[in-house]
Design brief:
Order of helices and strands of chain A: HHHHHHHHHHHHHHH
Structural class of chain B: mainly alpha
Largest sheet of chain A: none
Radius of gyration of chain A: 23 Å
Distance between the termini of chain B: 16 Å
Distance between the termini of chain A: 42 Å
Number of helices of chain A: 15
Oligomer: heterodimer
Structural class of chain A: mainly alpha
Strand content of chain B: under 5%
Number of strands of chain A: 0
Helix content of chain B: over 70%
Largest sheet of chain B: 2 strands, antiparallel
Chain lengths: ~300, ~325
């Protein structure tokens, strides 16, 4: 056990991936920043000084205290408080948790749907292929934002705001997840078509393996590197979409804030000078998305040089 | 050509059909038209009778056909809130949205073309690296944060720009209320259109740069250089023409996306256009207005996409117009 682990580690150390990572400062910084954010998000309940979901501890007298480095700041609240006296630092930790959770789950859903439809389209071909790709074309021609806004708006109007708020997190994952599957389906289909021509697939067919087994055990693993590349960009996009939807009031409620709803709740207060309620979560969101995008760029160069130049 | 045209139009019709079914399903399930009309004070028996008379108890298909027939004649129902035909309400707000989209498109063209071309011609210069760096950062900034940043800087800190509304409008050529006619109207347009433009600007800069770089590698450009033509002539006449083809087709599709983002931009700047109207309609559960917006925006998407595809088919010889492409 230990031995295989250390040999795996050695193999990884010799790999091209590790080598190009070591020599790319942007990639190292991005990974460090992203891991810090991810750990903060996972450990949010442990490390945040207050529980932003707990309405009992909110004290309206604490509202709109600026961050600690400005003159009226208090040490209890490092990054200040929002209009209801919620500690911004804890709210941002929890918000990051919600944003990352929604982003990752939405991308997992997109990838699952896209991989299944892409494999089917590429492997079965014929009518199935042209039907699925036509659907994908049509869906891509409507922008994700449009589809998401309209669907969520209709859900909200038909459920009523109270019940909608309880379901918001699932709704966001569903809508963002379903709206973007064609991205994956197209990529997977293209690589299936390329893989299918190769001899090992013929060999598998001759051996009498079932189509399902060939699709998932043999073709799928060879299509995964482009899937990994688009996944990073898609996570960034999903987080941005979630933030935009929450900002419009169609996403997470302020009682269970995501980064988008924190920014939204602070928006009306920038006119009265309380900039930190909006600006700090905004900066966190931008850095998070930028870091993921930079990582995506780097992965694209390393894993698939052809994709980049093609 | 006729086959291609036919197939594309047929697809457009199918999509519009699906949109109309979805819209109708929404109208059918969201809110109760009877309660909006008569309120709570009418007895159950009278309600039932009214339902029958209005055809609300008819089978789904009959109701849908009636809805489709009315919709084709331009009758999309009456807004509960405005007490006016929903189509009229939306058409009245449409010029504001269209002006915003036009301004944003102009900004995109004026900035992305010179920047993209410059970055392609001088890939190693400091300015190009700066342009590309800014465009990567720009992709990572959500549009509402751009808007908040612009409002904070120009409206609150510097007090140079108005932060909401359209300002003075007056009829332009007697057709619609326009903000282009007065300085105040244009002044109000600046921040929202830059916000809307900021979504697409990085994308277009990157696209133009990579297309132009591809073109500059091609044989006919090398030949033009070898013949000793002036560099400016090669860049701006020969290379630029071929760069713009794919850019225009991508741009056409993005107009639809811009319409989607007007919802966000208009909400932040309280711009009295269709997008702002739509969110208000959602909050008021004004079903006819929601449905009318869906159909109109769906039609905008379908029409722009169809036109873009047709243009692409016409100008790009590799798309085969005569046989079913596979």
């Amino acid at each position: 056990m230990n031995l295989t682990f250390s040999s795996n580690l050695k193999q990884f150390r010799d790999s091209f991936l590790w080598h190009s990572f070591k020599n790319d400062k942007v990639a190292i910084v991005s990974v460090v920043v992203f891991l810090t954010f991810a750990c903060t998000a996972i450990l949010a309940p442990v490390i945040s000084p207050y529980d932003p979901y707990d309405l009992v501890i909110l004290d309206i007298m604490d509202s709109e205290i600026p961050p600690v480095w400005s003159e009226e700041g208090e040490e209890r609240f490092l990054l200040g408080t929002d209009s209801q006296g919620r500690d911004m630092l804890s709210a941002i930790f929890y918000g990051m948790r919600t944003s990352l959770l929604i982003g990752l789950c939405a991308v997992i859903l997109q990838a699952t749907l896209g991989i299944i439809f892409g494999l089917l389209a590429g492997y079965v071909g014929g009518k199935v292929d042209s039907f699925l790709m036509r659907v994908a074309d049509i869906q891509l021609s409507f922008s994700t934002m449009m589809v998401a806004i309209i669907m969520l708006a209709i859900f909200q109007a038909s459920f009523g705001t109270e019940r909608y708020n309880d379901l918001a997190i699932f709704m966001l994952i569903m809508v963002i997840g379903i709206a973007e599957w064609p991205q994956y389906a197209r990529t997977v289909r293209a690589s299936v078509l390329a893989e299918q021509e190769k001899e090992y697939i013929d060999a598998a067919r001759v051996l009498g393996f079932s189509s399902i087994r060939i699709m998932f055990r043999h073709i799928l693993p060879n299509t995964l590197s482009p899937v990994l590349v688009i996944s990073t960009v898609q996570v960034a996009n999903a987080i941005m979409s979630e933030a935009a939807l929450s900002f419009l009031g169609l996403g997470m409620p302020v009682t269970q804030p995501s980064l988008g709803s924190l920014i939204s709740s602070g928006f009306e207060f920038i006119f009265s000078g309380s900039w930190w309620i909006t600006v700090i979560p905004g900066v966190v969101l931008i850095v998070l998305v930028l870091v993921i995008n930079l990582l995506g760029d780097w992965l694209r160069d390393v894993l698939n040089p052809k994709l980049y130049k093609g | 050509m006729a086959t291609f045209l036919f197939r594309r139009l047929w697809q457009a019709i199918v999509v519009m059909f699906i949109i109309s079914i979805l819209s109708f399903a929404i109208q059918d399930n969201l809110g109760d038209p009877l309660r909006e009309m008569v309120g709570q004070s009418v007895s159950e028996a009278e309600r039932e009778e009214l339902r029958d008379k209005m055809g609300l108890n008819d089978p789904f298909l009959t109701q849908y056909l009636r809805f489709a027939k009315n919709a084709l004649q331009g009758d999309l129902g009456t807004s509960y809130f405005f007490k006016e035909p929903a189509l009229d309400v939306i058409l009245k707000k449409m010029p504001a949205t269209i002006e915003l989209v036009i301004c944003a498109t102009l900004i995109i063209v004026f900035f992305s073309v010179p920047m993209g071309v410059y970055a392609a011609i001088h890939p190693r210069s400091f300015v190009s690296k700066l342009i590309m760096g800014i465009s990567i950062a720009g992709i990572s900034v959500p549009v509402f944060l751009t808007a908040i940043g612009l409002i904070y800087l120009f409206a609150i800190e510097l007090g140079m720009m108005p932060s909401f509304g359209r300002g003075d409008t007056s009829p332009l050529l007697g057709m619609w209320e326009s903000g282009f006619t007065s300085w105040d109207g244009i002044h109000h347009l600046i921040l929202p259109s830059f916000t809307l433009a900021s979504i697409m600007l990085p994308l277009f800069i990157r696209l133009i740069r990579s297309e132009m770089m591809d073109v500059l590698q091609s044989d006919y450009i090398k030949f033009a250089r070898a013949r000793g033509l002036k560099l400016n002539r090669i860049y701006y006449l020969h290379a630029f023409k071929n760069t713009m083809l794919p850019v225009i087709t991508v741009g056409g599709v993005q107009i639809g996306t811009m319409v989607a983002y007007t919802i966000l931009t208009e909400t932040i700047f309280q711009w009295p256009g269709m997008g702002f109207l739509f969110l208000e309609a959602v909050n008021r559960v004004d079903t006819p207005l929601i449905v009318a917006y869906l159909i109109i925006v769906g039609a905008i998407f379908v029409v722009t996409n169809t036109i873009v595809d047709l243009i692409y088919g016409l100008v790009n010889p590799t798309v085969n117009l005569f046989h079913s492409s596979k």
